[in-house]
Amino acid sequence: MIGPPNICYTPNILHSGESLVNGAVLFTRDTVDIACAQDMFDKAFNTIGRTKMIGRLNHVAIAVPDLEAACAQYRGALGATVGEPQDEPDHGVTVVFIELPNTKIEFLYPLGDDSPIKGFLEKNPSGGIHHICYEVEDILAAREKLQSEGARVLGTGEPKIGAHGKPVLFLHPKDFNGCLIELEQV
Ligand code: CO
């Protein structure tokens, strides 16, 4: 994979991130915002046709045996902003999102008899981390790349619409150090 860009500071004759010279991203002296610089870097990647893979950590999902108790604990003891329960029949779960400054926690509680969370809670009666979710820009491109690297996509292999109304896929935990990974296109 490609490393960090060469960031050069030039006189103010170019707009920030405007030019690519020998693969270097040029930023003008007035580029002070690192988020802006990162955005320019991302755009530069797209410009030269490379696929960017995982982005931000979108959420960590925790399977919980008692949804109300878990919400009350996060709201009370941890002082977190806890959302309302949402039923996701396609995924066999009820979810609650907790907003943190840098990411989210997703509580998962079984919905229906064949919920995928049921077996997990039987093995982990007090609950446990169920999956982590990484953001990707293009879920089909990400799937293609991962499958070409030998990773297995769970289910039909086709993206489903997740709890945020965006396409998601799950990757086999045995291919990722025992960790179930969700990819969400943002
Ligand atoms: Co999730």
Could you characterize the architecture of this molecule?
The protein is an alpha+beta fold and 186 residues long. The chain folds into 2 domains: 7-44, no CATH class; 57-185, 2,3-Dihydroxybiphenyl 1,2-Dioxygenase, domain 1, CATH 3.10.180. Helix content is 23%, strand content 31%. β10 and β11 (167-171) form a beta hairpin. It binds cobalt (II) ion.
Task: Summarize, please.
This protein has 186 residues and is of the alpha+beta class. Helices cover 23% and strands 31% of the residues.
Q: Cofactors and ligands present?
A: cobalt (II) ion
CATH architecture of the largest domain: Roll
Low-confidence segments: 3-29, 43-49
Percent in helix: 10-25%
Structural key phrases:
12 strands, 2 domains, disordered N terminus, 2,3-Dihydroxybiphenyl 1,2-Dioxygenase, domain 1, globular, binds cobalt (II) ion, 23% helix, alpha+beta
List the SSEs and their pairings.
Blueprint: E1 7-10, E2 20-21, E3 24-28, H1 34-47, E4 57-63, H2 67-76, E5 81-82, E6 86-88, E7 93-99, E8 104-110, H3 116-123, E9 128-136, H4 139-148, E10 160-161, E11 167-171, E12 181-185
Parallel strand pairs: 1-3, 4-8, 9-12
Antiparallel strand pairs: 2-3, 4-9, 5-7, 6-7, 7-8, 10-11, 11-12
Bound molecules: cobalt (II) ion.
